[in-house]
Amino acid sequence: MAISRDKKNELVAEVRDMLSGASLTTFAAYQGLTVADVQKLRAQAREAGVVIKVVKNRLVRVALADIDAYKDVDASSLTGQLLYAASTEDEVAPAKVLHEFAKTNPALVITGGFSADSGLLSAEDVIALAALPSKNQLIAEVVAQLLSPVHDVTNALSGNLHGLLDGIEAKATS
Description:
Layout: H1 5-21, E1 24-29, H2 35-47, E2 51-54, H3 57-65, E3 82-86, H4 93-104, E4 109-115, E5 119-121, H5 123-130, H6 135-173
Antiparallel strand pairs: 1-3, 1-4, 2-3, 4-5
Helix pairs in contact: 1-3, 4-5
């Protein structure tokens, strides 16, 4: 059954909002996944703050044409049954979610992505992004590096203080 023009316009608006709000949108072929598998993927994506949308590629092309950042993107690679993953919170979360799910479900194949900065991304680019540490991990590493000198000074001072206290204790007992 064909969907009405109003419903198509509504879907295009949803996809436009999703694409324009995300700095990275990843798309993947899902042919061969069961409905239960897709539901499990959606649940994992929700936990990571990622939205999964299954929509006709033609409607995505229309939405891309309406977004300034994607007007010149060659959308000819949008073929077959694709699902789109996007997040407004974390730039690499869509790639990570799909990549992790694809490890246990080989029927899901990442085919590319859209980046607000660089346009169309290849599947290899998206997989490389998925291998990056998460935003929280990177923040933790920076904070650990910044606190490293403080910890070193604290440890050095506490070592000297312990040595002094041990010396005083040894004097007191002798």
